[in-house]
Amino acid sequence: MSDLAPSDLATIYPAPSPRVIAKARPEIDTHAKKFIGMSPFCVLATSGSDGSVDASPRGGNPGFIHVAGPNELLMPDRSGNNRIDSFRNIVEGSGFVQLIFFVPGIDETLRVGGKGKVSVDPELMASMIEFGKPPRAVLHIEVRESYFHCGKALMRSKLWGATQVERSVMPSIGEVIHDQTGLGARESQAEIYERYKEGL
């Protein structure tokens, strides 16, 4: 398999239409704000100083990411695995971030790009209590671009209409990590679920 040269791409893909180019907006408009307000889930992508890339799932109640202005988003950071790959990339790398927002039942997604910085301002964190506790930190995003993706990817995947698999077809995450590392307990999925509920 040979690698494509940049010039080869133009022979495979036609140029995007003016409408596709124009839909990229420099701010969060009314439609994007409404979409973010309905979104309980997004993926945050960051890049490190070494050129590595990280993508991290983020979730909460619909609207858990706050639109503080046309060019300002605030994302609370909840408890996780403490690897802090995303935040390390932001504070050590370029600071550039990309988010893709999902709303269950809507095939279109929203991409937002900008520059992030991490805040631990007590007043800001106190204003973002969810699940009975404040976040550990808040990601402040200076929005530079926002645009909607067409729904083809989600339509192909039938994501919102797909039959959910039984959880039992896959070992629990505790069993998977134990098998991979030999560390920690081989917790059942029920045990993990109860522990997760404590740490939301």
UniProtKB/TrEMBL annotation:
SUPFAM superfamilies: FMN-binding split barrel (SSF50475). Residues 29-150 form the Pyridoxamine 5'-phosphate oxidase N-terminal domain. It holds the Pfam family PNPOx_N. InterPro entries: Pyridox_Oxase_FMN-dep, Pyridox_Oxase_N, Split_barrel_FMN-bd. PANTHER family: FAD-BINDING, PUTATIVE (AFU_ORTHOLOGUE AFUA_6G07600)-RELATED (PTHR42815). This is Pyridoxamine 5'-phosphate oxidase N-terminal domain-containing protein. It comes from Bradyrhizobium jicamae.
